[in-house]
Design a protein that fits this description.
Elements lengths: L20 E10 L2 E11 L4 E5 L6 H9 L6 E7 L9 E4 L11 H5 L1 H6 L5 H10 L15 H14 L4 E5 L7 H14 L4 E5 L3 H7 L2 E6 L4 E5 L16 H12 L2
Parallel strand pairs: 3-7, 3-8, 5-6, 6-7
Antiparallel strand pairs: 1-2, 1-4, 8-9
Helix pairs in contact: 4-5, 5-6
């Protein structure tokens, strides 16, 4: 099928079925403590999932395990819905933008291809920068950009990898409220149809973005699903219909 002539066409999802992910019997020990043990996680294919939990419970370590960046003390059986390894099928966006200061914005977006020794698709990278509103900043260095602009570059770089599984660790923390809302809406648009797991400490961010919300709490930690989410993301954080879900999240987090 010929893709539509639209600026978003470089981001089109592969016609293959979305990738679901299964993690079984995950275990994390840190400083002699067992943070989680026998933990199971199911990510539905093509669903934007948000993960909430108190600091220090092991959320970032769990995300790195999914990304194949296994830290010491972490183990688990990880598989895609096709039974294959996730190696080479994951895009990871850290809390920090991790832009290389000696490269231009465009070169940072194409960094993955450069590191793998592959030809970079310059046209696609420029299209992505246009989608995140940075078409005029392609040739500048990251130190000339604001924090919100740098996060948009990091988002474009994540999308440039064009992987079926996207992992994001507090990607919008530290931004002003208006910039955060704009980037949340942008992420919801550009990642629609992909399998996404986003870690956040902010229940309102989870309610705004999540098609599914997971709560991680307890010691050792367990995962539970927040049911009956109202509406369709990106939701309006001021919507009164979210208040019951917001209270349910706080109650579960307080039970940690």
């Amino acid at each position: 099928m010929t893709p539509p002539a639209h600026p978003a066409s470089p981001l089109a999802i592969s016609p293959a079925l979305p990738l679901a992910v299964s993690l079984r019997n995950a275990r994390l020990t840190y400083g002699g403590l067992v943070l989680f043990d026998g933990l199971d996680l199911e990510l539905q294919g093509g669903v934007f999932t948000c993960l909430l939990g108190p600091s220090g419970i092991g959320k970032s370590s769990l995300l790195r395990l999914l990304a194949g960046l296994t830290p010491p003390g972490v183990s688990g059986d990880l598989r895609g819905s096709d039974g294959q390894s996730l190696t080479g099928r994951v895009a990871y966006m850290a809390q920090q933008d991790l832009l290389l200061p000696w490269l231009s914005v465009l070169q940072n977006v194409m960094l993955g291809s450069r590191l793998r020794g592959e030809p970079a698709d310059r046209s696609r990278a420029l299209d992505l920068l246009a989608r995140v509103g940075l078409a005029d900043s392609a040739l500048v260095r990251p130190d000339t950009l604001s924090g919100g602009m740098r996060q948009r570059v990091a988002l474009a770089r994540t999308l440039m990898e064009d992987r079926p599984l996207v992992l994001m660790d507090e990607p919008f923390s530290g931004l002003d409220a208006l910039t955060r809302l704009r980037l949340q809406a942008l992420a919801a648009e550009l990642l629609a149809g992909r399998t996404v797991l986003l870690i956040t400490h902010d229940p309102l961010e989870a309610l705004r973005l999540g098609e599914q919300i997971l709560i991680m709490n307890g010691r050792p930690a367990t995962l539970s699903v927040l049911p009956d989410l109202p509406g369709t993301p990106p939701r309006d954080p001021g919507d009164l219909t979210l208040q019951a879900a917001y209270r349910a999240i706080l109650q579960r987090l307080e039970a940690a």
